[in-house]
Write a structure and sequence with these properties.
Blueprint: H1 5-26, H2 33-38, H3 41-52, H4 56-65, H5 70-81, H6 86-93, E1 99-100, E2 105-106, H7 107-112, H8 120-134, H9 148-164, H10 167-186, H11 192-197, H12 221-241, H13 244-247, H14 259-279
Antiparallel strand pairs: 1-2
Helix pairs in contact: 1-6, 4-10, 5-12, 5-14, 8-9, 12-14
Length: about 280
C-alpha cells in the first residue's frame, strides 16, 4: 500500500534532519555557489581535495577510457558538488529517482543512456530479496503488489540508485554522459547552444581546437587555453543539466530560456574550470 502524502512528508523531513546531522558531524566537502564564489584559491584547492581527492585515479582512468579531458570531467563533478543541498543528501539516504551521488545523475538518465552496468544476476538477486521481504506471491503473481514488468523496472531503478551512490561508479557514469553529450553536440552544430561555443565539431584528439574563446584577441597561450576550457565547461555543463538545450532551436538571447542550465554552465566556467586551470589540477 502506498504511503500517504503526510507520511511521505514526515519521512522527508526526518531524512533532511538526518542529512543535516551527518553533514555537521562528518562534513561533506560540498557547498553552495555563493560560498564557492567567496572562497580563496587556497580554500578552493582544499575543497577539491576533500571532495574528490580520494578518487583522483578513478577520475583519470574514466577520462582516459572515454577520451575526454580529465579536467572537464572534474569540472562537471565539482560543479554538481558545489550546488549540493540537504535534499540532495536525503536522496542518498533513501531511494529516489532524482539526482544521486557525487555526479548528481538522475535514475532515468542513467538507465536510458546506459551509464551504469547491471548484470542479470544482480537483477535476479534483487528480485529474490524483494520476494523474501514481501512474500513469494510478489514475484510473477498477477495478484501480487507489483506486476512482473513493474518489478523488473523497480529492480533496475534501485540497483542503479545504489550504484550511483558509489563514487567510482558515479565518476564512470559522468564520463559516459559527457562522451554522449559530445556526440549529440557534434550532431547539432547548427543549433544555438553549440553554435555559441564552436566553430566546428569537437575532435577528441584535439578537444579545444574548435572552441570559441570567451575573450577575443588573447595573445598569451595560457590565457587562451584557460578561456577555451571555460567555454568548453559552459558548453558541456549546460547540456549535462538540460540535454534539450543542445538540440533546441529557440533563440537563446532571452536569458529566461533554460536559465537554470545556463546558470550552472556559467558557475562551472567561472568557479570551477578557471580555478582548476590556475591550480594545474587534472591537465
Amino acid at each position: 500500500m502506498c504511503a500517504s502524502p503526510a507520511r511521505r512528508a514526515r519521512r522527508w523531513i526526518l531524512l533532511i534532519l538526518l542529512a543535516a546531522l551527518i553533514a555537521a558531524v562528518h562534513g561533506a566537502g560540498r557547498m553552495d555557489p555563493q560560498t564557492l564564489e567567496e572562497m580563496s584559491l587556497d580554500g578552493f584547492d582544499a575543497w577539491v581535495k576533500t571532495s574528490i581527492g580520494n578518487y583522483e585515479s578513478d577520475l583519470l582512468a574514466a577520462a582516459r577510457r572515454h577520451s575526454i579531458p580529465p579536467r572537464l570531467l572534474a569540472t562537471v563533478i565539482l560543479n554538481e558538488l558545489g550546488n549540493y543541498d540537504l535534499v540532495d543528501q536525503g536522496q542518498e539516504l533513501v531511494f529516489s529517482r532524482g539526482s544521486v551521488g557525487i555526479a548528481q545523475i538522475t535514475i532515468p538518465t542513467a538507465i536510458d543512456n546506459k551509464l551504469v552496468d547491471l548484470s542479470e544476476d544482480e537483477i535476479e538477486k534483487w528480485q529474490e530479496r524483494f520476494a523474501e521481504r514481501h512474500g513469494a506471491g510478489a514475484l510473477g503473481n498477477p495478484a501480487g503488489p507489483i506486476p512482473r514488468t513493474g518489478l523488473l523496472r523497480q529492480a533496475i531503478e534501485h540497483l542503479v540508485w545504489e550504484k550511483l551512490n558509489e563514487p567510482t561508479i558515479a565518476i564512470e557514469a559522468a564520463a559516459r554522459q559527457i562522451r554522449l553529450l559530445i556526440k549529440r553536440i557534434n550532431a547539432n552544430l547548427d543549433k544555438p547552444w553549440p553554435r555559441t561555443y564552436l566553430t566546428g565539431a569537437i575532435d577528441l584528439s584535439h578537444p579545444y581546437a574548435n572552441i570559441v574563446p570567451g575573450q577575443a584577441g588573447l595573445a598569451d597561450p595560457h590565457a587562451l587555453q584557460r578561456e577555451r576550457e571555460m567555454q568548453m565547461a559552459r558548453l558541456i555543463v549546460g547540456g549535462y543539466n538540460s540535454p534539450k538545450l543542445i538540440r533546441t532551436s529557440v533563440d537563446l538571447s532571452n536569458p529566461g530560456y533554460y536559465a537554470r542550465a545556463r546558470r550552472h554552465a556559467d558557475n562551472a566556467a567561472r568557479l570551477i574550470a578557471e580555478r582548476l586551470v590556475r591550480l594545474g589540477w587534472y591537465p
